[in-house]
Amino acid sequence: MANIPDPNYDCMQSEFYSVAETMIGNLDTNLAKFKAYKGKYIAQMITDLEQELADAQALPDDDVRSGKGEQLRVQLEVLNTKCLNNQQDLKGYIDIFPEAERESQYGIAGMTNYRKAANKNWEFTKTMVGNGNDFILNNTVVLSDVVAGVNQNMPDTFPTQYKNDAKAFTDKYAEFKLATTTGVGTQSKILANNALNDKLSDIHNDSLKACRGDAGLLNLFVFDTVLKMVSPPGSSSLNINVVLDETGAAGTGAVFTYQKQNDPVLHTLNIDATGKIKLVSFDPGKYKWTCTLAGRIVAGGIKEVETGVDAKLEVRLKLV
Known about the structure:
Elements: H1 13-29, H2 31-37, H3 43-58, H4 62-94, H5 99-108, H6 114-118, H7 122-138, H8 140-144, E1 146-147, E2 150-151, H9 158-179, H10 184-210, H11 215-218, H12 223-230, E3 236-244, E4 255-260, E5 267-270, E6 276-282, E7 285-292, E8 299-305, E9 310-317
Parallel strand pairs: 3-9
Antiparallel strand pairs: 1-2, 3-6, 4-5, 4-7, 7-8
Helix pairs in contact: 1-3, 1-10, 1-12, 2-10, 3-10, 4-7, 4-9, 7-9
């Protein structure tokens, strides 16, 4: 995996693009003042900056990957269920072994991974079906229990069914991991954004000379000032829904914390019987969040809330 560079802009990517578009527009409106200071400020420069912005926006980003990853996750759940059902059938066929041998045979066939696979831990599903495939291949005769030419136990079609369902799952899982792993695509986009931000910084530095003495005009080229104009505080909302992963029931009693990027304040919320909380007049930005509940794996991540958006965050708490 490629090393992901850090953005040199202190805001969300969507906010950065809004600031860039606004600053380029401000430059276009005041181009004559800048040209009087430096001859490079001509109409073609505006055209080039607009194209650079469009090119950066067109590069695939995490939102695209996340959307595809969510689609693949739903597909994985369906395939996982098929594999779990096959595993239960296989366990039943293993009962042909003497009772004293069954527990050890269950383990060899991958049943020790079943519980975590059922909790949607895909790595354990992958291991389970790999072990199951090998077990079927090595024990086909015993599992079939052919008596007088008649199969008394595992159907002849089952090994192929198990193998095909296992392959469908592992192939989809590989696709899922690729879709949800940041790499060269993210690197290219951040580098493009950083290059554009460097140009915005140059424009700001030149504005200190080109717009000297005009405080109002100078503010049009200060990144943080423009950011507050395009992304004002309290202009969004965030809907939080905490559920138990295996049932979808409300995550009553969970503790949800969130902290805005570069803000020292950590906010804590207690999840009630509804499992749902709506935060209104919410500041746009990038938030780090965690959610904890006894007996559950700690959930967490990064949530970006864009300007003017009624954002949604569903937290699924998995069993330990």
